[in-house]
Amino acid sequence: MELAPQQPQQQAVSGSKVFHLAHWVSDAVNRLRLKIARRWHFIPQTIAYQGYGSTAWVRVLGRVVLTSKPAPGSKAEQVAVNGNQNLRGWRAFTAVPIPSTEVEIRIGGFTTRVHADRGGLVDTVIPVTLAPGWHTAVLRAEGTEPVTGPIFVISPDTPLGIVSDIDDTIMVTALPRPFLAIWNTFVLNERARMATPGMAVLMDRLTVEHPNIPVLYLSTGPWNAAPTLARFITRNLYPSGALLLTDWGLTHDRWFRSGQNHKLRNLELLAQEFPTMRWVLFGDNGQHDEAIYSEFAHHHPDNVAAIAIRQLSAGEAVLAGGHSNDGDHTESTVPWIYSPDGAGMAKSLRDLKIL
Q1: Residues in the chain with pLDDT < 50?
Q2: Which of 13, 231, 272, 225 is nearest to 118 (CA)?
Q3: DSSP 266-290
Q4: Which regions of the chain does DSSP assign to beta strands (E)?
Q5: Residue 51: how many CB atoms within 10 A of its CB?
Q6: 188 burial class (0-12, 13-18, 19+ CB within 10 angstroms)?
Q7: What residues contact 25, with CB distance under 8 A and at least 6 apart?
């Protein structure tokens, strides 16, 4: 069965003439990048990310970019899997997004066509009836090879889910430190990142205690880093889960994308999509996770099983710009957990009968 094509949802640009000019310049720069990339014989490529859904719909995530073609017989060509495994370190940031291109998506016997946004991103919900468990979506943009993305369909009677931040929560980083941030993001691969002690064991235990529990990694990191983050999660034995990332740059109404809005918007979406599910929210006290989770819990207390905050060390706090000031939750109806590692969080979750 083929569904009608979905047109791109382009939001009108609002703001001053300077802001409109900035959008025009941004689009012009991307057109120039596309022209140069094609001159250098970059090839179009569809990238499929892991998605999730219910038995009545699925959220499919992907991206369409121009990338440099690996040399025949090279290691990059040998390890290329599903259109994204060759984008390592700084090379992921040389990929040029192809805006508004049409992408065909096939899943569960249905075929539909959608359009990528101005950043080449595909983030769409497809109505389709599927059984709980793992499924596969096939994505293909014009001129690219089809690629597959895993989709986890959540059973309607699933009581518990996991939402976790990445930086300084499951991964020890120093991203606010400018030079190290650049080094970690553009040069090093996932082998240079260190997992937070005990967190992989904790999350694995949660998946054992609660079979078929959905896992979502909600971060303000850019989509360019998705391949590296996915490999980090796999290499360090964290449970597989969809990455919900964002992009840098202009939006239709802001000079810079708001990481806090990105996280809140996705949490609100989960509350709407799964109104009976309760979530364990993992974050850290070095940025805005406490404030974000506190606001979400205030509006949706029945959707939060517990909030677990990793406490940064003194050195990590300095690099992160200090601790947050939201540690008092005496009036909250949602249990809050604080610990510097996964072992301490596990003890508290046992006391709450979640583990």
Answers
A1: 7-9, 13, 19, 81-86, 177, 180, 250-256
A2: 13
A3: HHHHHHHH-TT-EEEEEEESSSSHH
A4: 43-53, 57-67, 96-97, 102-107, 110-115, 121-127, 133-141, 147-153, 160-164, 171-172, 194-195, 215-222, 242-246, 278-284, 304-310, 336-339
A5: 25
A6: middle
A7: none
pLDDT value at residue 72: 64
pLDDT attached to residue 172? 86
Contact 5, 112 (CB under 8 A): yes
pLDDT at 296: 97
pLDDT recorded at residue 280:
98
Do residues 53 and 131 lie in contact, with contact meaning Cβ atoms separated by under 8 Å? no
Q: Residue 274 carries which side chain, given as an amino acid letter? A: F
The pTM (predicted TM-score) of the whole model is: 0.84
As given in the structure block, the two tokens for residue 292 are 């974000």
